[in-house]
Design brief:
By secondary structure, the chain is α+β, with helices and mostly antiparallel strands. The chain has two domains: 3-81, Arc Repressor Mutant, subunit A (Orthogonal Bundle); 90-201, Arc Repressor Mutant, subunit A (Orthogonal Bundle), CATH 1.10.10. The chain is built from nine helices and six strands, in the order αααββααβααββααβ. It has helices at 3-16, 23-29, 35-52, 74-81, 90-102, 107-114, 119-127, 150-155, 167-179, and strands at 57-61, 64-69, 105-106, 131-136, 144-148, 210-211. The strands form two sheets. The protein has a three-stranded antiparallel beta sheet with strand order 1-2-6. A three-stranded antiparallel beta sheet has the order 3-5-4. Helix 5 packs across helix 7 (119-127). It is globular. 30% of the residues are buried.
Length: 227
């Protein structure tokens, strides 16, 4: 297939998708096109967007490709969508970091590291679909094991878990969020929430890009602990 036509088709597919699309899924749609030809075309698209200063960027997030708006347009996009910047409390950030780096991890193991009860924080992270229950640990009581979700990768603009920053970089990122007032007030103790608990995404959650769409295959973090 002619290169420009392939890039135009890929652009349409990514715009129509409701989240990051893997190269394998694109290959299943374009079954007559070799996978390498598809990934090469995606690379060309990414370079074209960046070189020409277009209003889109092609990002590799959550093991797939997604069209996003550049960080310098974030304020205008927020005006259109009327969505306030997402905020997370310090407790949420610290607990999420522990789960990201230690997963799979139990609630008791998280509490051993933080030194405080994390019931409320874990529930909040489950509700925001940033973490999920992945299994039960084979010990007495069979406690739940927690891990991160695809939404976590999207929110923090990560290609995969191998793209996680170092612990030092995570500390620096957390400090920046605090300085910008994005870690929210610690109202009501360790699990205190802020005024915008329902959404993670956009400039404050990743490197500045606001996704055009949601999660491709439905939320993977839909499990909840039984009452």
């Amino acid at each position: 297939m002619e290169s420009e036509r392939l890039k135009a088709i890929l652009e349409s597919l990514l715009l129509a998708a409701d989240g990051p699309v893997s190269a394998d899924r694109l290959k299943s749609v374009l079954d007559e096109i070799p996978r390498k030809e598809i990934t090469d075309a995606l690379g060309e698209l990414r370079q074209e967007y960046e070189r020409t200063g277009r209003g889109l960027r092609l990002a590799e997030v959550a093991n797939g490709y997604q069209l996003r708006t550049p960080s310098e347009h974030a304020e205008f996009v927020r005006r259109l969508t009327a969505v306030k910047p997402a905020r997370m409390s310090r407790a949420n950030l610290e607990t999420l970091a522990i789960i990201a780096y230690k997963q799979p991890v139990t609630r008791a193991e998280i509490e051993d590291i933080r030194g405080v009860n994390v019931d409320g924080v874990v529930s909040t992270l489950l509700d925001r679909r940033l973490i999920r229950i992945v299994a039960r640990k084979d010990v007495a009581g069979k406690p739940f094991l927690y891990g991160t979700t695809r939404e976590f990768l999207e929110a923090f603009n990560l290609k995969d878990l191998g793209s996680l920053p170092t612990l030092r970089e995570m500390e620096d990122m957390t400090q920046v969020l605090r300085e910008q007032g994005l870690d929210g007030p610690e109202a009501g103790g360790d699990g205190g929430e802020d005024a915008d608990p329902d959404r993670i995404g956009g400039e404050e959650a990743g490197e500045g890009d606001e996704p055009l769409a949601g999660v491709e295959d439905g939320p993977p973090g839909d499990e909840r602990e039984p009452d």
